[in-house]
């Protein structure tokens, strides 16, 4: 999956400026942007500030706060001059997105404290499109941005919003600016950058709907994989994420994560939940690794991290996992990660310990039920494990 964020930023800015340029004969200081307490001119300045601010976050590698600077416009700058500022600031963000390495994360508060280049591109585009809608509405001018640009935003930072036939109308609805048939009007909203869990040797990166769709169709999801990856289980898991998104059931905190090796930014496998916690507070987890990455403890490290983060949530009481009886390597991963065998499930219920699993130390695999749609007979033939923290 190519990094197209820079091109999408440029398209968004170009479409916005083209519309606003038709209304430069108006006094933007005297016209209020629709739905806002700002004038059109103030709104245009805000858009420019967001574009250059996001560029600065990426290029400055801001770790825990915004880069401390302000954008100042020369006195006497007219409406056309404001559009030139937006074009220039959009160009800076587009360039930053094109040149920032894939693994760079920078500070942004909503909702998980950071964003990558795709997230900043999507947020910048959202600011441009939505506020151009506000300005154009106030100026009495229509605005219809390219559908693919709207889809870029929705599949990166609105993973919780069920898509509809018209991406622009969906984005307007998701941000309280419009209506969609059969859906209640939105009164409060927030975008969501993908969740990332940093570990010692790995980073667990939340898979966006865009990445999931690409992986399910045979792409790389925007990751650089080790030899042999991604494996079929990863593609099947990505397909489930894409399906949940299409149905409006996706909760990214309980979705799929790609395991990325920090030393070289190579993806080695995937791990994820089969869905959000059930009414009893149970979530089920599955994982797989590319063969070239097995035997290094990656699955154990990732499983410890993701399971521990899960049980920290109030809605979770237990993390479950299943393996086939003959899959000793995967059983070893579970035991070393702190899981225990559930007595009486799929065998004699003999207790296992980390010591009895040592023989599987060098062969981590991924047969822990990547698909959640197993019949009762299949489930009875599996071993159940639980992690309670």
Quaternary state of the chains? single chain
Q: What is the name of the CATH class of the largest domain?
A: Alpha Beta
Bulk shape: elongated
Topology pattern, helix = H, strand = E: HHHEEHHHEEHEHEEEHEHEHE
Q: Gap between N and C termini, in Å?
A: 37 Å
Number of helices: 11
**On the 0-100 scale, what is the average pLDDT?**
91
CATH topology of the largest domain: Aminopeptidase
Write down the Rg.
Answer: 24 Å
The helix-and-strand class reads: alpha+beta
Strand fraction band?
A: 5-15%
Number of domains: 2
Describe the largest sheet.
Answer: 9 strands, mixed
CATH architecture grouping of the largest domain: 3-Layer(aba) Sandwich
Number of strands: 11
Q: Which spans of ≥5 residues are poorly predicted at pLDDT below 50?
A: 346-380
Bin the helical content.
25-40%
CATH homologous superfamily designation of the largest domain: Gcn5-related N-acetyltransferase (GNAT)
Topology of this protein?
Blueprint: H1 5-20, H2 40-59, H3 79-99, E1 106-107, E2 114-115, H4 117-139, H5 147-157, H6 167-174, E3 196-198, E4 202-206, H7 209-216, E5 224-225, H8 232-246, E6 256-261, E7 266-273, E8 282-289, H9 298-311, E9 318-323, H10 328-336, E10 340-341, H11 376-380, E11 383-387
Parallel strand pairs: 5-7, 8-9
Antiparallel strand pairs: 1-2, 3-4, 4-6, 6-7, 7-8, 9-11, 10-11
